Amino acid sequence: MKEKKKSGNNFLVQGSILAAASIIAKVIGLIYRIPLQNILGNEGNSYYSTANEIYAIVLMISCFNLPLAVSKLVSERVHKGEYRNAHKVFLCAVRFALIVGGTLGLFTYIFAGVITKYLMSFELAVYGLRVLAPAIFISAIIGTFRGYFQGYSTMVPTAVSQVIEQIVNAVVTLVCADIMYSYGVSLAAQEGNDSLGPAWGAAGGTFGTVASITVALIFMMVIYTAQKKTLRRNMRRDQNSKPESDYLIYRELIRTILPVILSTVIYNITNVADQGIFNKVLQGQGYTDAQYGAIWGIYSGQFRVLMNVPLALASCMAPSIVPSLTAAMANRNRGEARYKIKTSIRFTMLLTIPCAAGMAALAKPIITMLFHQETGTPLSAGIMQAGALMIIFYSLSTLTTGILQGLGRLKQPLIHCSVALVLHFFLLYFLLTTANLNIYAVVYANIFFALIVSIMNAFAIKRYINYRQEWYKTFIVPGISSIIMAAAVYIAYSAFHAFAGNTISTVLSIIVGVVVYCVGLVTFHGITIEEIATFPKGHLLIRLLRKIGLVK
């Protein structure tokens, strides 16, 4: 029984490894975005964000979901002992990535001007988008390597490559942004267009993505080469599997990846579409390009960057649970599948709910500490407070989408995201035009979108696997503990700020918040002694809790 539970929790371990690496990568990304913001300014940051958002959409169409599709197909074959066919899936996926990634990379480079000018109303983002075009091709290839290793239920190569990728990205981005900004300023002096400095600076910043993806691919190829002996040994052990034809693998790959691609594109296209609608509406209201560009730069370059740190938890738990659920369903073990769903949702909520509450309570201090500027701080803080629920609902909708995909229900997330997207656009347009809420319209519409997806996903999971989510330990205790924690950090910050600077007060308040939240979880029985014992150094934590009388 113990062994079974340990095996059942392996996806949590692997998800935690990927989440830890992703959070490290996001923190590195957050750190370098601060000096990048100072180099580019709000206008340059909006060009940089626009190019990256378009790149992200093209990436989703070409290869973003290749790791998930490859891991699902490889996991199914590894579970049956068909190691030769599992490797054949990988080789077919590489060929698929070369064709699709190369085609869309070339398409993006050629039509970059049309996309930025006519779809985004941000013509000068063209330089950054063209620089990013080769990264689409490279990312497609690296996705197959990551999916192959994930299919063997190991997230370590993916995790390490993500950290390496982000370190290289940080260094190259800042150096190239500074160099190209100076180049753009010299062009601006000749052509009389002050926006060329920020635009070329943004293009220099996007080169960091190309360089980092290239280094990450080299790393994955080295790991794959080092693992060849083990892979060959596994294939020699495989004496029973009938070789699958390339045609059948390509067909299954496309059938698996197409609904996932479409649902992910719809799920993530909201930010690009929101910017297009936001820009058009504000143009009609008399705002200049620089004005609405600066507002969007604050939203995307500050709030969205900070929001992505806690969202990394759900984004990493989803790919780790897909092969695990695939194996459980292949065994027809619905009880194990339900246990994994419950555990993954609870684990995600235990971490994202307090993150949302803490970021709302310390919105202005965090923005001031990280971005070191008063210009735009009230707006940034207001967006963060208004968007706190977005962190929770986006985490839940991302995870439940991954759960449905792991259960083999690939079309459901596509339908749910499509319905939510249509409703989202109606609400966004109403809030922008009739309610005149400006950037807050985007925030509220996104919260609504993620909420609708979460609700529809929950009903679909319940229908398919007869699953009912436990509420008390998953939502109620973390919610109550987070509210108490938010009040504690607000009071602590006010007390510390009376005699210390903003940064020291903010860090100390966050520490107070972590302690208060953990005490709240234990006090309201949101977490058990057995669960604490599974943590690293959990026995020491239990001893401490006994000493202070929180547990018997």
Describe what you observe in this structure.
With 552 residues, the protein is an all-alpha fold. Helix 2 packs across helix 10, helix 5 runs parallel beside helix 7 and helix 17 packs antiparallel against helix 18. The N terminus is likely disordered.
Number of helices: 20
Please state roughly what percent of the residues sit in beta strands, choosing from under 5%, 5-15%, 15-25%, 25-35%, 35-45% or over 45%: under 5%
Helix content: over 70%
- Derived from helix and strand composition plus strand pairing, the structural class reads mainly alpha
Secondary structure elements and their pairing?
Layout: H1 2-8, H2 10-64, H3 66-79, H4 83-119, H5 126-151, H6 156-191, H7 196-226, H8 228-237, H9 246-284, H10 289-330, H11 334-361, H12 363-371, H13 377-386, H14 388-406, H15 411-433, H16 439-465, H17 472-497, H18 502-523, H19 529-533, H20 538-547
Helix pairs in contact: 2-4, 2-5, 2-6, 2-7, 2-9, 2-10, 3-4, 3-5, 3-9, 3-10, 4-5, 4-9, 5-7, 6-7, 9-10, 9-15, 10-11, 10-13, 10-14, 11-14, 11-17, 12-13, 14-16, 15-16, 17-18
